[in-house]
Amino acid sequence: VPKQYIPAVETGIKDSMLKGVLAGFPVTNIKATLYDGSYHDVDSSEMAFKMATIQAFKKGFMEAHPVLLEPIAALKITAPEEYTGDIMGDLNKRRGRVLGMNPTANGKQIIEAEIPMMELHGYCTVLRSMTGGRGEYEYEFARYEQAPSDIQEAEVTARAAKVAENNEE
Length: 169
Fold this sequence. Notes:
four-stranded antiparallel β-sheet
């Protein structure tokens, strides 16, 4: 491959990583190596190399069996002890993992857990309802984990429906 087309190949990889293939989300942790290629003095162009790179990325990416990652939050809930069971049951329904419980001096429990961020939507209202307005929580991003297959399939299906809808317009 002539040296003047190598930046076009790099641009094709970067564009493919930003848009993603599986569900339109960015792609992380890949390594791409340009081994070989052919060109034609008349028909080759930067755009042709970029498009060829995008097509090669899509093909190789799907053959690698990609997975979606979801953000996981570290959650800390402070609530009166009598609501601990209800809170833990709700966390389990939301795919949360309880890491520990620590009592405080004023009769409350601090429950530490990890939970997918998508499950935190509306959690403030639910926690306040469960605890009569006496529970509170805080969270921060912890890491990414592989999404369960049912959630992954739902995201891919939703993305396909959205693409089909946009193509009809």
